[in-house]
Design a protein that fits this description.
By secondary structure, the protein is α+β, with helices and mostly antiparallel strands. 49% of the residues lie in helices and 13% in strands.
């Protein structure tokens, strides 16, 4: 399993701005009462890791001061492998479908743990609800 780290939400760059303030308020109220519940956030390594998921949860955690469980994904050094760098770029810049395909490919190539893919697919499924 990929290691889960716990960080202040202010140390994680969300993938996008909050788009549904009702959802954010519901998550915030839940965090005040119960703390963080559910999946960890996936993020690409960096000085301030860039999250692939969880904009609303990260914003709610900022409001509540709850630590964010995060799985940090560290891309390899690309050494001129354009196809490989395109896969990793899709994780940050792609839509949900492109991210899922890129992750599946990286898992098949042994560059990403299956548990990371499982978390991402669960996140995509919850967004479709």
């Amino acid at each position: 399993m990929s290691e889960i780290d716990y960080r202040p939400a202010t140390e994680i760059e969300p993938p996008h701005d909050v788009t549904d303030w009702d959802k954010q308020r519901t998550l915030r109220d839940s965090m005040y009462e119960h703390g963080w519940i559910g999946r960890p956030v996936l993020a690409i390594a960096g000085d301030r890791p860039t999250a692939l998921t969880g904009s609303h949860r990260i914003d709610a955690a900022i409001d509540t001061g709850v630590l964010v469980p995060v799985i940090i994904i560290t891309p390899p050094i690309f050494d001129g492998d354009y196809a490989q760098s395109e896969l990793w770029s899709a994780l940050v810049d792609g839509d949900d479908d492109e991210r899922a395909v890129a992750m599946m490919t990286l898992v098949e190539r042994g560059e990403l743990a299956q548990t990371v893919l499982d978390v991402m697919l669960a996140e995509i499924a919850s967004n479709d609800d």
